[in-house]
Amino acid sequence: MTQQTIPHDPILVIDDEESILLSIDTILQMSGYNNILTCSESRQALAIIEQRLPSTILLDLNMPHISGEEIIEGIAARHPHIPIIVITGKIDAETAVECMKTGAFDYIVKPVEEERLLEAVEKAQAAVQAASGDRGSYEANTVKLFHPELFEEIITQCKEMIAIFEYIESVGKTDQPVLIQGDTGTGKELIARSIHRVSGRKGEFVAVNVAGLDDNVFSDTLFGHVKGAYTGAEASRAGLIERASGGTLFLDEIGDLSPASQVKLLRLLQEGEYIPLGQDKISFSNARIVTSTHVELWQQRQEGTFRQDLHYRLATHRIQVPPLNKRKEDLPLLIHHFVTSAADALKKQAPSLPPELLHQLSTYHFPGNVRELQAMVFDAVAQHKNGTLSMAVFREHMARSRSTTEATQDIDNTGLPFRYADPLPSIKQATTMLIEEALRRAGNNQSIAASMLGISQQALSKRLKSQHK
Hints:
Layout: E1 11-14, H1 18-30, E2 36-39, H2 45-51, E3 56-60, H3 68-78, E4 84-88, H4 93-102, E5 106-109, H5 114-132, H6 159-171, E6 178-181, H7 188-199, E7 205-209, H8 215-223, E8 224-225, E9 237-238, H9 240-243, E10 248-252, H10 259-271, E11 273-274, E12 283-284, E13 288-293, H11 297-303, H12 308-314, E14 317-320, H13 331-345, H14 357-362, H15 369-383, H16 392-408, H17 427-441, H18 446-453, H19 457-467
Parallel strand pairs: 1-2, 1-3, 3-4, 4-5, 6-13, 6-14, 7-10, 10-13
Antiparallel strand pairs: 8-9, 11-12
């Protein structure tokens, strides 16, 4: 911290816990910030702010009398240029997103870690200096990343994804476990790798898929074995937990872990202890544990297939990765990236893209998420000869997927759009409404609308002509 970065205006800390105020005040003072105001009474906070505008505000969300959310609203209405750093005991990504929506600049969790606190304050001060120095304007509800380069591997412009990056910056340097939830193909391992990069850990990032592993294979894979531990164990072998020493161990599909293995993982998380197969001596690990699952662990707990205490341990920090159909603003970036990557891998010139491709894909539900899109693009580029990339591969894939979904999906009649219509629309009226909606979603492209309706373009054109007679 240089003297030039110390603000002339005070940093205001608002928290009803005196111990938190003392801790933050001490950390900031020892780091060179010598203009600190503290407030333990939420009802006095806005008056203090009006008396002397602070450069940055650190604010507890959960306080008696006036909540942190109300104070944020008051500050945002009068002084939207002041960055607010929320401090809270809640440690899930949903809370982080909500904080950003209310206008918070950053988000840190209790117990407050010195490095994370100073990082957040420095980032807030940089934003204030940039605004006052005409180097750009500060918007209180804009998510800003301190190290955007650590997330370059993830292709996105989705606000929800950027908010997740912000959350990762908040919790990445802690030693606590992180549970990443999301559908298959959403990029959970990429999120785990970004957590490892943000952590600054010097050890390796080691990934293992635990789905389908029985307890012996799980133990051998993670903890290793000594010579003679079982038939065929002719030499000692270290497990992946040792390889991840000082780094991150990523356990994919943790929801499929057997009950016996759950007990061993719980001991590793609680005590940092594990025992290689065939060994009596306890070994210790300092690897950070990150896990992922595509299933709902709460439901598995209720069914008795997943331990409650293990779930609590794994979910100290939680991240929910949105499916691709909830972040379709990323489709242009992802398509371009995958086309370029596929062309490089196949040693081909990247083809030009048909203008209707984005419209076509934006109507698709992507059950396989980003991984499915990548496979579709690679297949299309592999079959490409010359000129513009053909739409045929995409249409065939989408048609197969839709027919499979229709064949396997249970129809819920309670969700029919006309259930409460009185009177019911006629067949002709319902058909007209369906066609109009398909055309709206397809951007008036008849070919795309026809594929959505499961009919040929000629059949759709015929129906449109009959409607206008």
